[in-house]
Amino acid sequence: MAINQLAAALVLTVLSGSVLANAPTATTSASSASSVSSASSPKTRAQVIAELEQARANGELNVGDADYPYQQKFVSTKTRAEVVAELVRARASGELSVGDAAYPHLPAFVSTKTSAQVQAELVEYNKHPDPQGLYRGY
User: Fold this and answer.
1) What does the radius of gyration of the chain's CA atoms come to, in whole angstroms?
2) CA separation (Å) from 21 to 30, 31, 32, 94, 120?
3) Given its phi and psi angles, is residue 130 left (phi above 0), alpha (psi -120 to 50 degrees) or beta?
């Protein structure tokens, strides 16, 4: 019984494939040929090659995944002298970091207390140490 059902399914599959296959007719092949010729007729091979060379010269041609998506070349709005002046100002004000060791850049610490005041605070702290151990690392 199962073999008969399998054979029937196989026969139906083969027949449905042949029914759906459409033999090419004169009207079908003529219309597809005209659409192909109309699509390729506006430009000549020389024009396409010229466009390709122009795209390569402009740097608009992607040659792999490394430059996807294409980004326009950077055009600066400042002169070299303006950029150098900004660099000098940044160095003078300490805004220029020199690697990861200086990140984030913090201004130099300036104490508002004298050494005697700091020592007096230490003596007071030693008299009454932090009961919760916050400053001892517990």
Assistant:
1) 40
2) 19, 18, 17, 78, 100
3) beta
Give the tens place of pLDDT for each residue, 115-135: 999 899 888 888 877 666 666
State the residue for tokens 């130099």.
108
Round to whole Å and give the CA distance between 91 and 98. Answer: 10
Measure the CA–CA gap between 74 and 66, rounded to whole angstroms. 17
Q: Are 122 and 128 in contact (CB under 8 A)?
A: no
**CA atoms 80, 82, 85, 91: torsion sign:** negative
Tokens 């300036």 sit at which residue?
Answer: 110
Q: How many C-beta neighbours within 10 Å does residue 61 have?
A: 13
Helix, strand and coil percent figures for the chain, each rounded to 5: 55, 0, 45
Report the SS3 class of residue 28.
helix
Cβ contacts of 7 within 8 Å, gap of 6 or more: none
pLDDT tens digits for 31-66? 445 445 555 568 999 999 999 999 888 877 777 766
